[in-house]
Write a structure and sequence with these properties.
By secondary structure, the protein is α+β, with helices and mostly antiparallel strands. The chain is 39% helix and 13% strand. The longest helix has 21 residues. It is globular and about 40 Å long. About 27% of the residues have low confidence.
């Protein structure tokens, strides 16, 4: 009887330790411009036409305003679309302009699927972005990757628009 009770308690503790709460601080207003259909897009919600010249060169804000810090992926995909390639080429040019800057590529997925599957998918997305940037002349040593899977959604919601915006790779100045 004690063994069964201990097993039930251990299972309950394990389940509680594995559960997580989505990041409630994520933007509910939306980020980025988005191209529907091919899973690609760019931007972070800052209107490039409104942006002023007050950003520090080589900063995260500079990347966001002048280049775009993210690309989007199709459902269950990690291939770089043509639109995403255009953004990543601009990111590579920007990174080559600032050779002392290191970046972290964050791989994200939508809320569907298991935690483990989404961590793997986020990892493949981050590494696809990294490989593309390296192919454009950015030193591999300047780029690290991390997968957040579905744990840090950009948009809260359970609909196609939210899912599409959460399937992304984000370049973050380190």
């Amino acid at each position: 009887m004690r063994l069964k009770f201990a097993a039930v308690m251990a299972t309950a503790i394990l389940v509680a330790a594995c559960s997580s709460t989505p990041d409630q601080t994520a933007s509910a207003t939306g980020e980025g411009t988005f191209s529907d259909g091919d899973g690609a897009g760019t931007g972070t919600g800052i209107d490039r036409q409104v942006a002023t010249g007050d950003v520090a060169p080589g900063s995260q804000e500079d990347l966001v305003v002048n280049v775009g810090d993210r690309v989007f992926f199709g459902f269950d995909e990690y291939q770089i679309s043509q639109e995403a390639q255009n953004t990543l080429r601009q990111q590579a040019q920007w990174l080559n302009r600032y050779p002392n800057i290191n970046v972290v590529i964050e791989g994200h997925s939508d809320e569907r699927g298991t935690r483990e599957y989404n961590l793997g998918l986020g990892d493949r997305r981050a590494n696809a972005v990294r490989s593309f940037l390296v192919s454009q002349g950015v030193s591999d040593s300047r780029i690290s990757t991390v997968s957040y899977g579905k744990e840090r959604p950009a948009i809260l919601g359970s609909n196609e628009d939210a899912w599409a915006r959460n399937r992304r790779g984000v370049t973050v100045v380190n």
